Amino acid sequence: MGENGSGQSGWTFLTNHARVLLTVARDPEMRLRDVAVRCGVTERTVQAIVADLEQGGYLARARAADGRRNRYRVNPDAPFRHPAEAGHEIAGLLELLARADDREPGRTPDPSSAMDEGADA
After folding, report:
1. Pairing relation of β-strands 70-74 and 59-63?
2. Which one of 1, 21, 32, 66 has the largest count of C-beta atoms within 10 Å of its C-beta?
3. How far apart are CA 108 and CA 115, in angstroms?
4. Distance (Å, rounded) from C-alpha 23 to C-alpha 64?
């Protein structure tokens, strides 16, 4: 991997799939275009990731109350995919990263609003 301008290589701990899932958990009615901007990837990439997450049982999509947007529901009970994390649910990761966001100035995320509630809520 290449350098990122600071002399460090460009790898990160979280995949784009994890970033998209976390972003959707923070705001279940966010447009995919805005998810793409927040995650630093293209809208097409986010669409493919959301399709992967839906197929894997991590997200469910429904129409929001306004009938114009989608609303996503995160399945917090879904397990990590890698065998090394077998037996662990994604809820722990989402909660951990939400706590980190709570410490950021100006941020008031509530990932629990997207976790385990009805899609029509």
Report:
1. antiparallel
2. 21
3. 16
4. 17
